[in-house]
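Exercise 7. Given the encoded structure of a 491-residue chain, write a plausible sequence.
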């Protein structure tokens, strides 16, 4: 009798699982990336008490896996996870990382260790019944429009949000949403804070307009951040909002606007351009200055060649006009929300396009490198054989930030680190050559070669208020190199 009951329960479980399989289609997508990187002089310091010799070799790994639970063409849920990035032998990929550290191996072999899974996305996406209105609600990627650079330079991050999009006419649509990047007054935060001003909220909207071979997408965003919203601190403690003398107890109001433009001229010329402007004012009043600035870019691709796509590009971003003494505490760099992840030119100094690691701890992202102009060219998708392709980048950049910004009283220079921040006295040349070989359709091998000749002004930085000024005076060097070999499985 017990055997019959057991068999019946097993059969019922099979039917239940079959029913779930029929009701929801589950698919997995993602990429698993491993890369060996040899770096030399990435901080542009030849040595020093704080840095030592900056020549390293590491093997890095990152695993992204997304699961799509689709009920029908109008409803699905998305769960996106990531393990890493970490170096082999360290942290997530250190020996025994999958179990708790301890001397008693038998006792800890089955205990959870530090191989943590990071949540990247978890949201529901659906259409309102009998309409073309699409909604996505939950933890998701939100990015403002961008025509060039790979993503928005203002807001491009995973965030808790509700987003709605819908067509208005055949040529015009609208996307709008609400996001909450920070909230310190919850049990799930690292620090529970009571009282007012504990949250940050963002409203945004974009209106894509298409006409013939052209499209333009104007957009706007507004943020209100409380004075305790970032784990009990003010939002101006974040690098994307901070000014020369902003306080970590400041709340703020932020405003952004701009447009992304794409067009095709004479069939073979693709034009891309963006204009972004942002301004934040601090809730404590005008004594702390605030922050405002802009970013402009333009690029032209020639698409008439079968073996490559040549591109010319130019970008300009406003920079710091002075420090808290010389410019009344006002920042001249465009404020950014959180950490824009993808906007970059080239594939080395301004963002590791193909690399897993960042350029310097605070560099390689929009918020750390704003305040420069750059002119460059790329030869994209150079292909002479079916499975092998290359990209070549050459660019020159010069800073637009006043050197006075580095001379802050008390040594409190916010978000301006040697190796990632360019003053009017600093410039650089960059050249990259990146190759991709398809072993299989889903498996690609990469080879990255990069060189940066950075002409930082040693006298300016060596006499500044940055914490490593002494090392800069004694050990400043100019050239940085990278050699990377990667393997990426897309599925």
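Solution.
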């Amino acid at each position: 009798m017990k055997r019959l009951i057991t068999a019946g329960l097993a059969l019922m479980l099979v039917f239940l699982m079959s029913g779930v399989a029929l009701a929801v289609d589950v698919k997995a997508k993602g990429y698993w990336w491993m890369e060996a990187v040899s770096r030399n002089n990435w901080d542009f310091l030849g040595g020093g008490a704080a840095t030592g010799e900056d020549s390293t070799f590491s093997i890095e790994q990152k695993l992204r896996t997304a699961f799509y639970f689709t009920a029908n063409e109008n409803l699905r849920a998305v769960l996106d996870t990531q393990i890493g990035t970490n170096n082999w032998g360290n942290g997530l990929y250190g020996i025994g990382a999958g179990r708790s550290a301890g001397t008693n191996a038998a006792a800890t072999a089955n205990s959870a260790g530090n191989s943590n899974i990071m949540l990247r996305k978890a949201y529901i996406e659906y259409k309102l019944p009998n309409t073309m209105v699409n909604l996505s609600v939950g933890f998701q990627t939100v990015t403002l429009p961008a025509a060039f650079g790979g993503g928005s330079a203002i807001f491009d991050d995973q965030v808790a949000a509700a987003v709605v999009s819908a067509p208005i006419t055949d040529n015009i649509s609208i996307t709008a949403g609400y996001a909450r990047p920070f909230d310190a007054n919850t049990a799930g935060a690292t620090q529970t804070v009571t009282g007012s001003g504990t949250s940050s909220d963002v409203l945004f909207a974009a209106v894509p307009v298409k006409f013939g071979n052209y499209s333009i997408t104007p957009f706007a965003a507004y943020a209100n951040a409380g004075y305790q919203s970032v784990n009990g601190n003010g939002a101006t403690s974040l690098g994307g909002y901070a000014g020369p003398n902003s306080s970590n107890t400041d709340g703020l109001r932020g405003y952004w606007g701009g447009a992304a433009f794409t067009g095709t001229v004479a069939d073979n010329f693709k034009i891309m351009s963006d204009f972004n402007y942002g301004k934040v004012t601090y809730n404590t009043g005008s004594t702390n200055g605030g922050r405002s600035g802009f970013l402009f870019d333009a690029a032209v691709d020639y698409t008439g060649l079968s073996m490559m796509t040549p591109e010319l590009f130019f970008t300009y971003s406003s920079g710091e006009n002075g420090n808290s003494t010389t410019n009344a505490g006002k920042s001249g760099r465009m404020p950014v929300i959180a950490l824009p992840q993808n906007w970059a030119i080239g594939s080395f100094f301004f963002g590791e396009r193909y690399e897993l690691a960042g350029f310097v701890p605070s560099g390689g992202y929009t918020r750390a490198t704003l305040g420069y102009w750059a002119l460059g060219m790329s030869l994209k998708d150079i292909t002479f054989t079916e499975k092998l392709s290359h990209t070549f980048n050459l660019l020159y950049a010069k800073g637009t930030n006043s050197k006075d910004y580095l001379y802050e009283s008390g040594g409190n220079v916010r978000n301006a680190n040697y190796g990632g921040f360019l003053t009017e006295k600093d410039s650089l040349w960059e050249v990259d050559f990146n190759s991709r070989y398809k072993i299989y359709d889903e498996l690609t091998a990469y080879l990255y070669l990069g060189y940066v000749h950075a002409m930082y002004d040693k006298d300016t930085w060596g006499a500044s208020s940055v914490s490593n000024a002494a090392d800069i005076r004694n050990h400043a060097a100019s050239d940085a190199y990278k050699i990377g070999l990667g393997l990426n499985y897309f599925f």
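Remark. Residues 131-296 form one domain. Students should compare their own answers with the one above.
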